[in-house]
Design brief:
The protein has five helices and five strands. By secondary structure, the protein is an alpha+beta fold.
Length: 207
């Protein structure tokens, strides 16, 4: 904290016992807790498995995009919390095969990976709707528009992989709302329902 203060960072704290004043991050904390409870409720895990799982979950949560997501693979990656913590969007190298002789060690690692994959699938489904501008209950949703840059909710993708694309076409229902859209990505063009597309709040400003 001292290093940040020396760099001119000003800290602003909420009063005690007022979680409602930090709605955005408190909602994120609740999502993390709910998903952890869901993936860990089936059986009691060992300390090693739980420690590995929490490390994987930490990386999943901190690899979420905070800013404009570039479409081109050669473009700079989207800013994530891991950039501030580790200097890159993902501080972990791709998973490799274990070559350890200890059967218990292998089993603990495999168990933690299974739980981390379960958490990832739940996290994608729960978190992406939170970064859209469409507030379902309080105001009329803003339709997805052609040209919007979106993140595609795809729980089947590998962990920490955030597919991105640009809207090139929309399908509008009789009530005037966009129900599905055509998305151009680096891997091709896909048709996806609007519920699986998240438009980021922060957009790039071209100079």
């Amino acid at each position: 904290m001292t290093e940040f203060a020396d760099s001119g960072v000003e800290w602003v704290f909420n009063p005690p016992l007022s979680p409602h004043m930090g709605g955005s991050w408190e909602r994120l904390i609740r999502t993390v807790k709910n998903n952890l409870t869901a993936v860990c409720s089936s059986a009691r895990q060992s300390d090693e498995v739980l420690r590995n799982l929490l490390t994987e979950v930490e990386n999943i949560v901190n690899s979420r995009p905070l800013s404009h997501v570039p479409i081109d693979e050669d473009s700079a990656p989207a800013l994530t919390p891991n950039h501030f913590l580790l200097g890159s969007s993902n501080g972990c190298k791709p998973l490799t095969n274990l070559d350890y002789s200890g059967a218990a060690l292998r089993q603990n690692w495999l168990t933690s990976q299974v739980l981390a994959n379960l958490y990832w699938r739940r996290w994608v489904s729960d978190y992406l709707p939170e970064i859209t501008r469409r507030t379902k209950w309080f105001e009329r949703p803003k339709p997805i528009s052609i040209g919007d840059v979106v993140v595609i909710a795809d729980p089947n993708m590998p962990r920490n992989c955030w597919p991105k694309g640009k809207i090139i076409g929309t399908r509008v229902s009789v009530d005037g709302q966009v129900r599905s859209a055509t998305v151009r990505t680096t891997r091709g063009i896909y048709e996806r329902p609007a519920t699986k597309l998240a438009v980021l709040d922060v957009q790039r400003v071209d100079k």
